[in-house]
Amino acid sequence: MRRELDVILDDVIDRHKRNRVENEYGGGRRLGNSEFGSEDLVDVFLRVQEKGQLEFPIDNDNIKAVLYDIFTAGTETSSSTIDWTMVELLRHPQVMTKTQAEVRQALKGNSVEQTNMVYSMKYLKLVIKETMRLHPPVPIVLRACKEEQVINGYTIPLGKKVLVNIWAMHRDPRYWKDPEKFKSERFENQSLDFVDGDCHFLPFGAGKRMCPGITFGLATVEFALSQLLYNFDWKLPEDVRGEDLDMTENVGLTVVRKHNLFVDVTPYN
Ligand code: HEM
User: Fold this and answer.
1) What pLDDT, in 10s, does the model give residues 181-199?
2) pLDDT tens digit sequence for 55-108
3) Domain segments of the chain: what residues?
4) What residues are in contact with ligand 1 under a 6 Å CB criterion?
5) 76-267, what's its fold?
6) Long-range contacts, 172-179 (Cβ 8 Å, 24+)
7) Ligand 1 atom nearest residue 216's Cα
C-alpha cells in the first residue's frame, strides 16, 4: 500500500513541476494548478522548496508526508462533520432556517472566492460545535503514560495505552445539561472552545498531539456548509420525519453515518 501510494504522490509532484515549467516557458497562461488558476498547496510547497529560504529545507518526502496526512487525517473527518451537520439541520428545521438566514445574509452579493465572509457566520459556528459534540468524528483518542501514574485510584503502568472516550464525555450529564438534545446556544458560553476550553469538549483532541489541522479543517467545513446552505433549500422527503431518521453510526476510526441520507433539494434563486 505504502509503495503504491508513493507512486501516486510522486506523480502528483511531477505533474505540478512539469506544469510550473510549462507555465514559465510556454506562454504562462496559468500561474498555478488550482481550480482558479492560482497556486495550489503543492505549488506553494514547490515554490518554497525551490527558493530554499527555510531554516530546515523541505524535500519531496516532506511534501509527500503532508499530502499523506491530509488524505488520511483530513478528509473523512471533515466530510463526516459536514454530513452530520446537514443531518442535524434537517432534524431541526428551526435551526436550519436560522442558519440559512445568516448564511444568505452574509454571502449576498459576494463571489464564491470571498471565503472570508464565512468567518462572520457566528451561528453557523455554534451549530458546527454542537454537531461535533454529539458526533465527534474521532470518538476515541489514544495516549500512553511516560511514567507510572495513579488517576482516581487506578494505576496506569508505564507505556500502557489509554483510550480517552471523547464520545462519552460529550454526552456525560455531569458536564452537559440535556446532553442528548441538540442545542447550539449552549456554545455561546465562551469557555466551550476547541483550544484551551473546558476539557470535556475535545473534538480535536488536546495537548501536544492535538489535531494540527484544526484551522484548515474548520475552514473546509464552514466553507462547504455555507455553500450548500446558500445555494440550495433542503428538506426531508414527505414521508420521513426528522425524529425518525436513522442515526446509526458506523464503527471505525472516524465515525460516519451508516446509512445514506436522502433529501429533497431545490436550487435557491
Ligand atoms: C473537522 C475536521 C477534523 C477533526 C474533527 C479532526 C480531529 C482530530 C483528532 C481528534 C485528532 C487526535 C488528537 C489527539 O490525539 O489529541 C486528530 C489528529 C490529527 N489530525 Fe485532525 N481533525 C480534522 C481535520 C484535520 C485536517 C484537515 C488535517 C490536515 C490537513 C488533520 C491532520 C491531523 C493529524 C496529522 C493528526 C495527528 C496529530 C498527531 O498525532 O500528532 N486533521 N485530528
Assistant:
1) 999 999 998 778 888 778 8
2) 888 999 999 999 998 888 999 999 999 999 999 999 999 999 999 999 999 888
3) 2-73, 76-267
4) 69-70, 73-74, 77-78, 81, 137-138, 141, 203-206, 209-213, 216-217, 221
5) Cytochrome p450 (1.10.630)
6) 172/200, 175/200, 176/133, 176/200
7) 27
